[in-house]
């Protein structure tokens, strides 16, 4: 009995939670060190002096003890109670309490044994997590982005309401017994022409070990019968040790307007080519008429006058068409930025979602709080928010509508903004090396248009790199001139093609991937800034673009 008593006493005194013995009326009989320390006392004797009645001096809400006593009297001793305790300094702490009734065999008196754990930090962390979760759920709702989670092992699919509302459907129409059937929600809503490819793309991502990011483009049927273009992205979450979980999370974004803008741009180009050919034929006819004798020329002066008037009208129409194309090209560039913004917002959202899942798993596995791991996961949420803020700043700079060239333009900030919004194209295969001048470089110009120039040049460099490569960006001040060199180690441009690289509609890209207007418009913008743009290239080795602009 002595050995057993010693063992019990050791466990009692060294337990990591508070243990207290009281009478039914609330008088403190005994407790371990962890108990009095938890409530801010320096010793057992000090706590006994201050605590005359547990209900009044330990419970923040005395009625909680009455509820606890009622459960004990009804033999409900297997319950875990949540109460708020009151420390010596009158501070409130959150506690989880397990209580059991003990009867002394000799005196037949009844006592209560309580096991108490301080979960204040855990509750605060859970509240922060709840607030963060609500915040990001609001972001998803406002942006009309559909979120989804797929359990690989059970074919279980969870979808946010926006997954359906962006297609005009009522989410409740697709939920059966608390879950969603993948085939009914996704496969059957796909366009017949996209169904096999989209299904195989997702299956291949899972089959090949979920490497990197899952990305898919397809059309889904709207409730009104139209087809909505969807950009689907996702990632299979990993455990802290790097092994895969069975949960893949992702988003659906409506990119129909971007697809329509791309189609309109192609139509503009085709229509302009037809108009140019028609006017060329008319000019050839006019040239033949101009070859007649002076006598015939005099007799046909009215015809020539009408032709001149027609040509004037044609030139005016061509200029209007050119302006529309310039705006269309800008919208195409904005499409690139919009895709970049969507991607960069999704990434931190997935980052936050991953942190959220990690916290949930952690708190499910461990009842106590691990400060180091909790701080790391909460910091992940902070990083996601900061990245979203930086991307929005970059987009606002690019999309400014001011036309004048009298703004202060910080070249380094403009280049950094362009790199940031193209990050989703850069990060997987391209390394960007910046060699900026030590001093801040400011020129007079148009901030929005200079953003358009650098987005076009850097995007061309990215597209020229077929696998992995690098882009080197160097800035320097030489006299009264700013020089910016942007070089890549991509496929390069032939000597024949480099002579025509700034010609309108000239492109070496496949149909649908380029309009041939990006560098043409960039060249016009640079000239409007009283600058120049030079190209040097070698096939198989890469291309260098040299921009020269006057300093402020």
Automatic annotation (TrEMBL):
Q: Under which EC number(s) is this enzyme classified?
A: 2.7.13.3
Query: Known InterPro entries for this protein?
Result: HATPase_C_sf (IPR036890), HATPase_dom (IPR003594), His_kinase_dom (IPR005467), HisK_dim/P_dom (IPR003661), HisK_dim/P_sf (IPR036097), PAC (IPR001610), PAS (IPR000014), PAS-assoc_C (IPR000700)
Q: Which controlled-vocabulary keywords does the entry list?
A: Coiled coil, Kinase, Phosphoprotein, Transferase
Which parts of the chain are coiled coil? Answer: 258-289
Ranges of residues in domain PAS: 4-79, 132-209
What top-level branch of life does the organism fall under?
Answer: Bacteria
A Pfam family per the record: PAS_3
Domain Histidine kinase residues, every copy: 340-552
Protein name listed in UniProt: histidine kinase
Q: What is the lineage of its organism?
A: Bacteria, Pseudomonadati, Bacteroidota, Bacteroidia, Marinilabiliales
